[in-house]
Amino acid sequence: MKAILFDLDGTLIDSADDIALALEKTLRDLNMTDRIPSDVRKLVGGGARALLEKVLGEDFREEHVEIFRKHYLSNPVVYTKPYEGIPEVLKDLKSRGLKLAVVTNKLSDVTMEILKKLNLKEFFDFVAGGDTFEEKKPSPLPVVKTLSYLKVEPSLSLIVGDTQADIDAGRGAGTKTALALWGYVKLNGAEPDFKLSKPEDILRLIEHS
Questions:
Q1: Are 181 and 113 contained in the same domain?
Q2: What is the pLDDT averaged over residues 86-111?
Q3: Phi-psi label, residue 151: left if phi above 0, alpha if psi -120 to 50, beta otherwise
């Protein structure tokens, strides 16, 4: 194994409370507080546009994304934190010489701001947001292009994520896939190659690959 690609929300970080906060502010601006969901964790994973489409349905408008983005980018780390063990695992993986990347559907400017604030940016050789390429997960394209940048073959790579989009993107790109069971797990299709109970399981997986 030469490269590991990580999803962000529900894999590296627990960000649901800050996403919920930005969503609540957005809905207040739109006078739609009756649409505030009881549990945003069930809706996270497709990016801001997908989240708003799920919440607003036919009332969704493209300009709503910018309202959400403004609120979220203004303070994206109030409650957000890395999952326990993530910084240590990333440090260990880097010390072993693996190339690491983030492939998320979250907007890239917010992604970079969060990684900086949580002191995680230094671990990654490349960061792909949902707006970095012309397609996002579950399309394999962001995975393929990220691996091209890293100069690593898909067969020597692993994608770790907590949703079906991560598994499908990895399978389509030809990587190994691992489901992060500590996240906002949503699986309703093809099974991953591996299931991980805690971040430290990644190290054991690498040792036996």
A1: yes
A2: 97
A3: left
